[in-house]
């Protein structure tokens, strides 16, 4: 094989110099925090007052599992909000892009134009799209309620009452990221050989039969991939509620009805001075997400 | 795929069905186009409106009186220095992108091509961390950045982002797909590894580098959470947390805020219009692999 490249058999430093720059940053900002995050979670810690650091053992964790504490209510409320958001956003983020990709794959004229348009919101930042939709959903002067009123519908206060606040966030998110999944679906669809469809058509299969018997089975691995990555992405929800609803409306028991777990951690560790507690929350959330990924991995590994 | 091989429709009864199908597809796609474009048009439209035109009985898509006042106001307000933020964002995103290209192509090349003890183990470790949720790193990395005195400094956002494994993985995949012959020929001619990397491998990887550059620039330009945590002083903020500052600085001045959104959105929209095909393809390929 590569005789010439493997010629020098003796130990050489050069390869390590190639990987060293990246490895240093990796060690400091991925390797080290993997452990220091756990470490911090055993302390009452505020980076602005390091002298006031107190070792509290498992207290930060116990608070999260002690049903009587405020932190328990706030934390598990935010977990529930996150799961609710995942539940309502993921089906739309999978089915709408799938439908669009199937249509774009029809090889009709103008499809690259539509693809370009549908994908465009994805290049915008979270802050930009949140600001735009925050303005559209406003009760005073908002675009949506203007037309709802014009056409004789109810005009709810979108950003401050439930379930509308959650719906607003789902709508903004679907609008923003549907193009991403669509593009991945489309790439997978284009890999399916066209003669399969032609043969099916000759055999008299209608459009639905072609979709359910050819497209879906061949798309299954990509479909699984997209569902899992979308669930994880939705679990990381932060910017939209931060800028559109600020977690509102407040729940009678504590926490906000649109306050996801990332926003809770942000508030705990960076608005309030409880970084140890925020680190503990992060560990619990990370374990939940890894368990989810692991279960999925095992589940779909076994099937294949 | 083959343009000459058009499917022949056997029976003419299909034609009507075919026509209806096409019409339905175009109708649906046009409706979705409207849904996608309307919020963007509304953003532009609002940014050129006076506050007095925002809460009128009737909505005007084209402002009755087009004004640049919103833009003048936010550009000249010292408490929301959006021009400054723009330059900050441009600086951070450019430096991050260039550094990543250098660091990641070096490392990616080594993992793909060079043979050294521990290569498989180290690379395996890097890949394993791709499955770790980002939330784990938020607090500890913030503490590290604070302890290293990098809060409110651009280095506080640039340096932690260099630890990312994605670019290394991406470049390694690319280098593995390159044929080895050219490099072997150069090695026989007596070139050392650094020379081979810079004079043979790197020139061949321009398409991959371009893809990585676009992805990393977009990611850095659009970064919200980390910039929000690290860059707190208004003078060093970037555009994304800047928009949040803008939102908090004014009440119901939606014209001003949409002007801010336009200033943040327009550079990436222009980039997108010119590189549309390229960006979509980059996302499709990296999305499937990553």
Polypeptide structure, described:
Chain A is built from twelve helices and two strands, in the order αββααααααααααα. Chain A has 304 residues and is mostly helical. Chain A has one domain: Orthogonal Bundle (MetI-like fold), CATH 1.10.3720.10. Chain A has a two-stranded antiparallel ribbon. In chain A, helix 3 crosses helix 7, helix 3 packs across helix 11 and helix 9 runs antiparallel to helix 12. The longest helix of chain A is centred in the N-terminal third of the chain and has 35 residues. The two termini of chain A are 33 Å apart. The mean pLDDT of chain A is 89. With 290 residues, chain B is mainly α. Chain B folds into two domains: 56 residues; 172 residues, MetI-like fold (Orthogonal Bundle). Chain B is 72% helix and 0% strand. In chain B, helix 7 packs antiparallel against helix 10, helix 10 packs antiparallel against helix 13 and helix 12 packs antiparallel against helix 13. The longest helix of chain B has 36 residues. Chain B is globular and about 75 Å long. Chain B starts with 12 loop residues before the first helix and ends with a helix. The relative contact order of chain B is 0.12. The chains are: A mainly alpha (304), B mainly alpha (290). Chains A and B meet through helix 1, helix 3, helix 4, helix 5 and helix 7 of A and helix 1, helix 3, helix 4, helix 5 and helix 8 of B.
Question: Helical percent range of chain A?
Answer: 55-70%
CATH superfamily of chain A: MetI-like
Q: Structural class of the helix and strand makeup of chain B? A: mainly alpha
Q: How far is it from the N-terminal to the C-terminal residue of chain A, by CA?
A: 33 Å
Oligomer: heterodimer
Order of helices and strands of chain A: HEEHHHHHHHHHHH
CATH topology term of the largest domain in chain B: MetI-like fold
Regarding CATH, which class of the largest domain in chain B?
Mainly Alpha
In what range is the share of β-strand residues of chain B? Answer: under 5%
Helix content of chain B: over 70%
Instruction: Calculate Rg of chain B over CA atoms.
Output: 25 Å
Count of beta strands of chain B: 0
Low-confidence stretches of chain A: none
Uncertain residue ranges of chain B: 1-5
In terms of DSSP E residues, the strand content of chain A is under 5%
| Main pleated sheet of chain A | 2 strands, antiparallel
């Amino acid at each position: 094989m590569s005789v010439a490249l493997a010629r020098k058999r003796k130990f050489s430093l050069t390869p390590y110099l190639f990987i060293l720059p990246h490895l240093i940053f990796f060690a400091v900002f991925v390797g080290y925090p993997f452990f220091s995050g756990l470490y911090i979670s055993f302390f009452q810690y505020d980076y602005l007052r390091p002298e006031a650091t107190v070792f509290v053992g498992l207290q930060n964790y116990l608070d999260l599992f002690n049903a009587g504490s405020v932190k328990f209510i706030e934390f598990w409320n935010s977990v529930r909000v996150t799961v609710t958001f995942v539940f309502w956003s993921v089906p739309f983020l999978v089915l709408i892009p799938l439908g669009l990709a199937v249509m774009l794959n029809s090889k009709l004229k103008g499809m690259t134009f539509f693809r370009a348009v549908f994908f465009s919101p994805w290049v915008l930042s979270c802050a930009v799209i949140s600001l735009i939709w925050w303005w559209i959903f406003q009760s005073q002067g908002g675009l949506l309620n203007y037309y709802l009123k014009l056409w004789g519908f109810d005009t709810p206060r979108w950003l401050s009452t439930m379930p509308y606040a959650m719906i607003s966030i789902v709508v903004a998110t679907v609008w923003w990221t549907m193009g991403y999944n669509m593009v991945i679906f489309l790439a997978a669809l284009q890999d399916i050989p066209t003669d399969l469809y032609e043969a099916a058509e000759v055999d008299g299969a209608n459009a639905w039969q072609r979709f359910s018997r050819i497209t879906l089975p061949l798309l299954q691995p990509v479909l699984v991939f997209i569902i899992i990555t979308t669930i994880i992405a939705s679990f990381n929800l932060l910017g939209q509620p931060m800028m559109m609803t600020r977690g509102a409306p407040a729940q009678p028991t504590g926490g906000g009805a649109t306050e996801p777990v990332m926003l809770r951690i942000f508030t705990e560790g960076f608005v309030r001075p409880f970084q140890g507690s925020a680190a503990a929350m992060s560990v619990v959330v990370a374990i939940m997400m890894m368990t989810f990924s692991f279960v999925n991995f095992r589940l779909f590994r076994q099937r294949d | 795929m083959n343009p000459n091989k058009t499917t022949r429709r056997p029976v003419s009864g299909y034609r009507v069905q075919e026509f209806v199908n096409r019409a339905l597809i175009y109708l649906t796609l046009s409706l979705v186009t409207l849904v996608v474009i309307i919020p963007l048009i509304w953003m532009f439209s609002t940014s050129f409106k006076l506050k007095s035109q925002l809460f009128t009985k009737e909505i005007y898509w084209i402002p009755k009186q087009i004004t640049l006042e919103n833009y003048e106001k936010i550009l000249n307000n010292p408490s929301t220095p959006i021009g400054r933020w723009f330059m900050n964002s441009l600086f951070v995103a450019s430096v991050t992108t260039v550094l990543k290209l250098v660091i990641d192509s070096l490392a990616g090349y080594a993992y793909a091509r060079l043979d050294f003890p521990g290569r498989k183990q180290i690379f395996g470790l890097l890949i394993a961390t791709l499955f770790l949720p980002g939330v784990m790193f938020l607090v500890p990395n913030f503490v590290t950045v604070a302890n290293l005195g990098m809060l409110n400094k651009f280095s506080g956002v640039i340096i932690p982002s260099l630890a990312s494994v994605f670019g290394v993985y991406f470049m390694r995949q690319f280098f593995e797909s390159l044929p080895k012959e050219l490099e072997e020929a150069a090695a026989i001619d007596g070139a050392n590894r650094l020379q081979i990397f810079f004079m043979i491998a790197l020139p061949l990887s321009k398409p991959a580098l371009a893809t990585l550059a676009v992805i990393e620039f977009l990611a850095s330009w659009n970064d919200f959470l980390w910039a929000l945590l690290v860059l707190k002083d208004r003078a060093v903020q970037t555009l994304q947390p800047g928009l949040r500052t803008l939102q908090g600085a004014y009440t119901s001045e939606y014209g001003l805020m949409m002007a801010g959104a336009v200033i943040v959105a327009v550079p990436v929209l222009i980039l997108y219009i010119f590189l549309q095909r390229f960006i979509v393809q980059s996302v499709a390929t990296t999305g499937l692999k990553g």
